[in-house]
Specification:
The structure holds 2 protein chains of 2 kinds. Chain A is α+β, with helices and mostly antiparallel strands. Chain A has helices spanning 22-33, 70-89, 105-120, 131-137, 161-172, 214-220, 291-304, 349-365, 410-417, 426-433, 446-452; strands at 11-18, 38-41, 58-59, 93-94, 98-102, 126-130, 147-151, 155-157, 176-178, 183-188, 192-196, 199-208, 229-239, 250-253, 263-266, 272-275, 279-280, 313-324, 330-334, 339-343, 401-403, 408-409. Chain B has 3 domains: 1-120 and 245-315, FAD/NAD(P)-binding domain, CATH 3.50.50; 121-244, 3-Layer(bba) Sandwich (FAD/NAD(P)-binding domain); 318-406, Immunoglobulin-like, CATH 2.60.40.
């Protein structure tokens, strides 16, 4: 029994992780492997309900991270661990490489410094290449490209299956994930006593991985937050798979104030995305798309890669990054109250998550709290949804194809619904299977999915009859 | 050797009509491949729309029309492969196919693409706001109702004013949903009178010149904010139904690198119904959004006949001349002409459509000389037909010019 009520004795664990974004999922895994009993408290109906649901799905090398920063160390450590474990977890990876493209002479003059910083950061596999070499690598780039830094070690991954795999591994080791559960308050009296919307939880230590609510959660825990979350919205467009042939590599801008970091990026699913914007806002929950911005992104894509102009838009989305008043990660360990805050993980969370989890464990070890014996790595795999490896529809007896655009089979949907962590909402189903994520956005399959998911989601696709 | 003379991809009215015509012309091995479990295409969803009067002499509703198509196809000796998804088009007529047993290939001397059209989703329309549950197209709504007996909302706001919008309103009203309003972004409704009066008659407010400036809803749609003139207003609702704005289901063409026409979103298509690759033909709403099932059926039949004649020869090696359009002309079909070949049974006329309401003179200009003129005023999403003189087949340049009256 994991379910507790306010009247029964609280559930106990070694470590409570607040937030089931990519960082929380990675932390849960790392601590479960280290022998800790873990409960993850997630306010959303599913994991990845906040900042982690919308990102550019790049596994960064860290070539452009601030030199000497914790972020650089953790991006590198996270990437290294991902590369060593992804195969065992069934996670794909696409080694696209990236081009930091200069479009003006001034930008071209800055490339040597970018490459230099990259080498200083310990990323050796990069070079400044001239326009001819750039166009040879990516003929679809507009002829105005002057030069680029080629960073060969940049990858794209499946940004939703990776954290799902992390947390599934934690579940296999006995961790609990309490979804739809809000942390209300906490008090440390030698142990943590957490009050949640689902009842009490006693924990030896607390790890705050609450992303957009990082400062708020610190406050609820009675800890004075040493940062303030300043949400930064990023809008994206996803282009039809027809775009993929024109964009074999991640196209990064030379950082400046105008482009604000808009990337043109192949996805592991065979699409191309253009984004994100960077828009400061106060609201921590609402991430709207705006027509003019989406059109700007499409125009931007078409300017840099002219063939993209005519290619239909498959999807649009927006996400919020948990920025703070400073640029760097806001990681704090409070030994006296056995609390760790992983705050301000604003844009490299997917790359650094496994590194952050290692770091959190190192900080935890200074608390001197005993854990059980380290666990053997449980054999957990997640289904492949990327085009880098064979998909389920290519194997016999999948039942039928339910989502034709993304070629999602009935067997895949049924498996996701019956899995160890079934989706808590429609977005969760989409992230686990890609059903409804394609070019028709549910014209063909939405009704079928409504039927297959009846009675499963708090916000169902089909409404119940009146009266 | 190919295992079929002709494979038709898509078992809606156009595809089945093409297959039937091929069999009637004596073509031996014809197969229809459809990814759905039954034939009928878009007509399967449309419980309210009458189909079949002109092709079968009687009216069928929704799925019954598809059953009639399937029965006729099987009776004509056509191989019907439902539950088969075509995943790739080979240049030589080899098709990659996925089915519940796995994957495989099929091959044919000629292929007819008849994959139809679908409504544009919220993303491709670039509508602003939140992205909650409850934003659907008419096709999806009709699937809820027709196949599953479900409803996705009770009080939707409906966007659009095409023929399909009326079907959407009817579907809502007959299934316990009460639309809050029907909104058209343009200045005038796109459906013809008296159909355009229908929502009002049914007590649903109909408003033109209205833009959606925000969709509000954290989990499910709660409201839409609209703007008309300088005035903004919030309409409470529990869904947003996007109607019309059809777009050809051209993913296979995009993927194969076959030519996709910017105007129509469908294939490059010549006077015989051939695409850029002369082994591949196309018919129906894949060519241009969007015509009725009856039109698609007749078009499929004509292209099936033209294809039967083409099968007796090697695939055409003729060069192609583009048919250019300008200004407010959105699209023309056919949009390429294969030189030296007479207009065959495929298309006897050019079909055109306008992007916006306009009034003026449309001229077909062949090698710099006007060959035909048409004056009038047109609305978007309405079919415009122009004769196709035999001279186009020898032309070096073919274009449609439009002079707007002011």
């Amino acid at each position: 029994m994991t379910r507790t009520t306010r009247t029964s004795a609280p559930h106990s664990c070694d470590v409570a992780v607040i937030g089931a974004g990519v960082v929380g999922c990675a932390v849960a895994r790392r601590f479960a492997l280290a022998g800790a009993s873990v409960v993850v408290v997630e306010r959303g109906a599913d994991i990845l309900s906040g900042a982690s649901k919308a990102n550019s799905a790049i596994l960064h090398t860290g070539f452009d991270a601030p030199p000497g920063s914790l972020e650089l160390d953790l991006v590198k450590a996270g990437r290294e661990e991902y590369l060593s474990i992804h195969r065992d977890l069934g996670l794909s990876i696409v080694k696209t490489g990236a081009l930091v493209c200069a479009w003006t002479d001034a930008e071209a003059d800055g490339l040597a410094a970018i490459a230099g910083q990259g080498r200083e950061n310990g990323i050796a596999d990069l070079d400044v290449i001239d326009a001819t070499a750039v166009r040879a690598l990516m003929p679809g780039l507009a002829p105005e490209v002057r030069a680029a830094v080629e960073v060969r070690g940049e990858h794209v991954i499946d940004p939703w299956s990776a954290p799902l795999a992390y947390v599934t591994q934690a579940l296999a080791l006995g961790a609990k994930v309490w979804r739809g559960c809000e942390l209300l308050s906490g008090r440390f009296d030698g142990d943590w006593l957490l009050d949640t919307s689902r009842g009490g939880l006693r924990a030896g230590a607390v790890i705050n991985a609450a992303g957009l609510f990082g400062d708020d959660v610190d406050r609820r825990l009675g800890l004075a937050p040493d940062f303030t979350i300043r949400p930064r919205k990023g809008q994206f467009i996803v282009l039809d798979k027809a775009a993929a042939r024109h964009v074999p590599k991640i196209v990064l801008p030379v950082p400046n104030e105008i482009t604000k970091g808009v990337v043109i990026c192949p996805t592991a699913f065979g699409n191309v995305l253009v984004g994100p914007t960077a828009e400061e806002q106060d609201d921590r929950t609402r991430a709207t798309v705006e027509t003019a911005t989406l059109e700007m992104l499409r125009d931007h894509g078409g300017r840099l890669v002219p063939a993209l102009r005519d290619i239909p838009v498959t999807a649009v989305y927006a996400g919020l990054r948990p920025g703070t008043e400073k640029k760097h990660y806001r990681v704090t360990a409070r030994t006296e109250s056995r609390a760790i805050t992983l705050g301000g993980i604003r844009s490299t969370g997917l790359s650094a998550a496994l590194g952050l989890a290692q770091h959190a464990l190192r900080l935890f070890e200074t608390f001197g709290m005993p854990l059980g014996p380290p666990a053997a790595i449980p054999p957990v795999t997640v289904p492949n949804l990327t085009e880098a490896e064979p998909r389920d529809w290519q194997r016999p007896d999948h039942g039928e194809i339910v989502c034709h655009c993304e070629m999602v089979t009935r067997r895949e949907i049924e498996a996701a619904l019956a899995g160890p962590l079934p989706p808590g909402d429609f977005g969760g189903l989409r992230r686990r299977t890609r059903a409804g994520m394609g070019r028709c956005q549910g014209f063909y399959c939405n009704a079928r999915l409504a039927e297959m998911t009846r009675g499963r989601f708090r916000v169902p696709l089909a409404v119940e009859p009146e009266g | 050797m190919s295992d079929h003379d002709v494979i038709v991809v898509g078992g809606g009215p156009a595809g089945v009509a093409a297959a039937l015509a091929l069999r009637a012309e004596g073509v031996g091995h014809v197969a229809i491949v459809d990814r759905e479990p039954v034939l009928g295409g878009a007509t399967r969803h449309c419980a309210h729309s009458p189909f079949g009067m002109r092709e079968f002499g009687r009216v069928y509703l929704g799925a019954a029309y598809g059953r009639r198509l399937e029965r006729d196809a099987r009776a004509a000796g056509i191989t019907v492969l439902t539950g088969h998804s075509v995943t790739g088009l080979g240049d030589d007529g080899t098709l990659s196919v996925a089915h519940p047993g796995g994957v495989g290939t099929l091959s044919a001397d000629r292929v007819v693409l008849a994959t139809g059209a679908r409504e544009m989703p919220r993303s491709a329309r670039m509508l602003p706001g939140d992205r909650p549950v409850g934003i659907l197209t008419t096709g999806a709504l009709q699937s809820y109702v027709a196949f599953h007996g479900l409803m996705p909302f009770r009080r939707p706001v409906i966007l659009g004013s095409e023929l399909v919008t009326l079907s959407a309103v009817l579907t809502c009203l007959t299934h316990g949903a009460r639309p809050v309003a029907v909104l058209e972004t343009g200045p005038v409704p796109l459906a013809r009178a008296p159909l355009r009066w229908f929502p009002g008659v049914m007590g649903v407010p109909f408003r033109t010149g209205v833009g959606i400036v925000d969709i509000i809803g954290r989990d499910r749609v709660e409201a839409v904010r609209i703007r008309r003139g300088g005035q903004e207003e919030v309409l409470d609702c529990d869904g947003l139904l996007l109607t019309g704005r059809f777009t050809p289901e051209a993913a296979l063409l995009w993927q194969a690198g076959h030519g996709v026409d910017r105007g129509s979103g469908g294939p490059l298509i010549d006077q015989t119904g051939r695409t850029a690759n002369p082994r591949y033909f196309a018919a129906g709403n894949l060519l241009r959004p969007v015509e009725t099932g009856g039109w698609a059926f007749r078009e499929g039949r004509a292209i099936g006949r033209a294809l039967a004649a083409d099968l007796r020869r090697a695939p055409s090696a003729a060069t192609t001349v583009p048919v250019a359009v300008e200004g407010p002309v959105k699209l023309v079909v056919p949009n390429i002409i294969r030189r030296g070949e007479r207009p065959a049974a495929g298309f006897d006329r050019f079909q055109l459509r306008f992007l916006r309401p306009c009034k003026g003179t449309l001229a077909l200009v062949i090698d710099g000389r006007p060959a035909h003129r048409l004056s009038g005023s047109w609305l978007p999403e309405r079919r415009v037909l122009m004769p196709m003189p035999t001279a186009v087949c020898q032309a070096d340049s073919i274009r449609f010019e439009f002079r707007e009256d002011h």
